[in-house]
Amino acid sequence: MKNSKSIKPRRLKGTGYIIGAIIGIIAAITAFVFTEKIAISIPLFAGLSIPLGMSIEQKFQNQATEKGTRTKKLLIALIVVGVLLFLSIFISKFILA
Fold this sequence. Notes:
The chain is 74% helix and 0% strand. By secondary structure, the chain is mainly alpha-helical. The chain starts with 14 loop residues before the first helix and ends with a helix. The model has no long low-confidence stretch (mean pLDDT 77).
């Protein structure tokens, strides 16, 4: 009989991308419900789902190994760019308009 501590759950490749897409879809639908403008939902979806999916997938695939500093900087930069893109479109569409 196998010990329950030695059995690890297996995740399929691409699970992090799917989770990131689901988070992006939920955020885009929420933004659309509150603002009723599709122009803000699409950049929100693109700005959140891609970097979050990449970071979650990276975490799932490399749980046991140590990530390099270059990879961490790249993931942080992608998330920051996504957030800045969302904020710039949000400010230009709703605050300055």
